[in-house]
Design goal:
The complex is a heterodimer of chains A (397) and B (283). With 397 residues, chain A is an alpha/beta fold. In chain A, 40% of the residues lie in helices and 18% in strands. Chain A has a 7-stranded mixed beta sheet, sandwiched between helices. A 6-stranded mixed beta sheet of chain A has the order 9-11-10-13-14-15, with helices on both faces. Chain B is α/β, with parallel strands linked by helices. Chain B has a single domain, classed as Thiamin diphosphate (ThDP)-binding fold, Pyr/PP domains (Rossmann fold). Chain B is built from 10 helices and 8 strands. Chain B has an 8-stranded mixed beta sheet with strand order 2-1-3-4-6-5-8-7, with helices on both faces. In chain B, α2 links the parallel β1 and β2. Classes of the chains: A alpha/beta (397), B alpha/beta (283). Chains A and B meet through α2 of A and loops of B.
Chain lengths: 397, 283
């Protein structure tokens, strides 16, 4: 077992990308992602990583340059956050539909206005439908490990899709954690050199990204949908492969004390680790409560999720983004989609919390737990609520 | 604790202390700006300040006028909309080199080309300060940034020359050492009709200077004093900021050309005659 060393999570991610021997990095500074690409630029400049580092003039340019390098057949890595991810928006579709296996870490952060640099999931959730694979890390070790796993998944010839590796801005990005880092040799055993299926090659010319008339557009979308959905198998395979080689097992959906739980919290990202200690306390008081967390978000691991929540009576969902005037938060929407028509489906209680850097703490968990307990006791399911609002809910207080 | 006493009602006392590092020049430029506004006689409720993102972008939060803190690079677009819908007001874009010339570079060249009636103050500290000192299009050659640890190998923008080429009708460069000249220049720009661009060279002691071992902020002020040569009214030829060369400052360009709004109204009147009704702005 390798030694654990204290390292800032952003630097661990950069070291991990370097261990993957990436060929090209194109990036633009944005808080709280900046340390990742800054460290990569140092590694490139110091000759420790033989790669092109392109300090472009915007995120729109960054993702465009990544498409260029990936189209040329280079192993491509980048990182961004919030407004930067939003500025990449149109190119994200292009990377996905051109099947360019770019790996991008996203240090999740809120979107303006008001300007806010702190953590929530509004950046990634608004990019839910761009056709990328999406995966969430809970802690620094996971974030560092998922970099080679993401390259392995993205570059698998059965997959060939870009992948977004999400981890919470500041809460993870700026924290020093004890992390077992993989050496370049260890990663090389797991991740073979990238062999592109197709690339822009002057000797074997192809055209990428031409006009798709109505006669072919639907078919192109169908092919893309098929690719994302059927990436599930290879994703599980490569998570398992990593576990066999390095002993750290990751699954599309993770649970904590969920087996006999009547009330199950559903969440994503680093908050679930905070919630674990809360669960321990509440369990000590005799309440049957547990946690289910999505690691994989696209493709949506429906079967794993259903298995993980089997037996639960009430699901308490914490979303860190929501659709104003719409049906609440995205995690709750998708959970309800999975539950609809199911026999003995658990009731779904949903809250939106932890926006723009507001801490997800015991008060938030207790608030949701109270709501869930009332429903468990036969009460009506309340509508979605934005909790942690100073002075109470809009219209009250 | 003694609260700092602000000398101008154009600054927001309640927002102090500001976030800028000791020795940073953004605050100096802001002091020059508020003095220029006072001298210009433009009433407080007839001026708008629009900022992008970055250290200089924080100006929008410190001025006691209608202000708009926008997204990274798009201050000029927000300002164009504002300037066209409020032709009775002065619109000032106050942002940094990274915001205006990198991520916002596209909008900079086009707003200048259209000669939209606004003042653009570009505080050039040669780096992205807010995010930790990365390379920008204005980082001088061979100078270090966090993304170019062995020195910048890219060519550098000469902003006044760029702006002249794009069609800006008032183009200046000063440093934060030249406070009197800068105030005068800003006052002229505020009274100028058309697109005014003022580059303000400014020390970033925390990220740019420390990384490049350029000493303390006073050393850069001395450099600004000793190396600068004032060249007013002579265009922007030979004004590039090459290492070792004279640091050319001055009001380089001041010409009157029809603004975007005037061009539009002239053309529409030519084509539509009396059917064209000029837009007078929101009330």
């Amino acid at each position: 077992m390798a030694e654990r060393k204290g390292i800032e999570v952003s630097l661990a991610i950069a070291e991990s990308a370097s261990a993957c021997n990436v060929d090209c990095i194109a990036a633009y500074p944005i808080t709280p992602q900046t340390h990742i690409v800054e460290h990569l630029s140092e590694l490139v400049a110091d000759g420790e990583l033989d790669a092109e580092f392109i300090p472009v003039e915007s995120e729109h340019a960054a993702m465009s340059a990544c498409c260029g390098t990936a189209a040329a057949g280079a192993r491509t890595f980048t990182a961004t956050s919030s407004q930067g991810l939003a500025l990449m928006h149109e190119i994200l579709f292009i990377a996905a539909n051109l099947r360019l296996p770019i790996v991008m870490t996203v240090a999740n952060r809120a979107l303006s206005a008001p300007i806010n640099i702190w953590n929530d999931h509004s950046d990634v959730m608004t990019e839910r439908d761009v056709g990328w694979l999406q995966i969430f890390a809970e802690n620094g070790q996971e974030a560092a490990d998922l970099v080679p796993i993401c390259h392995k998944i993205a570059e698998d010839k059965r997959v060939l899709l870009p992948i977004m590796l999400n981890f919470d801005g500041f809460i993870l990005s700026h924290v020093v954690e004890p992390i077992e880092m993989l050496s370049r040799d260890e990663v090389a055993n797991y991740l073979p050199p990238y062999e592109p299926q197709q690339r822009l090659d002057i000797d074997h010319p192809i055209t990428m990204g031409p006009v798709g008339m109505p006669e072919v557009y639907t078919e192109a979308k169908m092919a893309h949908e098929h690719a994302v959905r059927s990436a599930y198998g290879p994703i599980c395979e490569h998570l398992d492969g990593f576990a066999k080689m390095f002993g750290r097992a990751y699954h599309p959906v993770e649970s904590y004390k969920a087996e006999d739980a009547e009330i199950l919290f559903v969440m994503m990202g680093s908050a679930s680790e905070t919630a674990m200690s809360w669960v321990d306390e509440v369990r000590a008081a005799g309440k049957k409560v547990g946690i289910v967390r999505f690691r994989l978000w696209r493709p949506l691991p429906v079967a794993d999720f259903k298995k993980a929540i089997a037996g639960a009576k009430v699901l308490g969902i914490i979303d860190r983004h929501f659709s104003p005037g719409g049906p609440g938060g995205p995690v709750a929407q998708e959970v309800k989609y999975m539950m609809y028509g199911e026999k003995n489906a658990p009731k779904v209680v949903e809250v939106v919390a932890g926006l723009g850097g507001r801490d997800l703490d015991d008060d938030a968990f207790n608030n949701l737990f109270d709501k869930c307990s009332k429903v468990l006791g036969g009460g009506d399911v309340p509508p979605f609520e934005l909790i942690q609002v100073r002075g109470g809910h809009y219209g009250k207080a | 604790m003694n609260q700092p006493v602000l000398l101008s009602p154009l600054l927001r006392q309640e927002r102090m202390p500001h976030i800028w590092c000791p020795g940073c020049g953004v605050g100096v430029s802001l002091n020059c700006f508020v003095r220029a506004v006072e001298k210009s006689g433009i009433p407080q409720d007839r001026i708008h300040v629009v900022s992008g993102i970055g250290c200089t972008g924080r100006v929008a939060g410190y001025v006691n006028v209608d202000s708009f803190h926008t997204t990274h690079g798009r201050a000029l677009c927000f300002a164009t909309g504002l300037a066209l819908s409020r032709p009775d007001s002065r619109v000032v874009v106050y942002s940094g080199d990274g915001d205006l010339t990198a991520i916002g570079g596209n909008h900079l060249i086009h707003t200048a080309r259209r000669n939209v009636d606004m003042v653009v103050i570009c505080v050039n500290n040669f780096t992205y300060g807010m995010t930790g000192g990365q390379v920008t299009p204005t980082t001088p050659e061979n100078m270090k940034a966090s993304t170019t640890p062995y020195g910048n190998f890219e060519y550098t923008f000469n902003l006044p020359a760029l702006m002249e080429a794009c069609g800006a009708t008032f183009v200046s460069r000063w440093t934060v050492f030249h406070v009197r000249q800068l105030i005068r220049s800003l006052e002229k720009a505020l009274k100028h009709r058309g697109f005014s661009f003022i580059e303000v060279l400014s020390p970033c002691p925390t990220l740019y200077m420390r990384r490049n071992r350029l000493g303390n902020p006073l050393n850069m002020m001395e450099q600004f004093k000793e190396r600068s040569v004032i060249r007013n009214g002579e265009g922007t030829a030979g004004t590039s900021l090459e290492e070792g060369a004279d640091l050319i400052v001055g009001d380089f360009i001041e010409v009157r050309r029809a603004t975007f709004k005037e061009c539009y109204e002239r053309r529409m009147t030519e084509v539509l005659g009396e059917r064209f009704v000029p837009y007078e702005g929101v009330r």
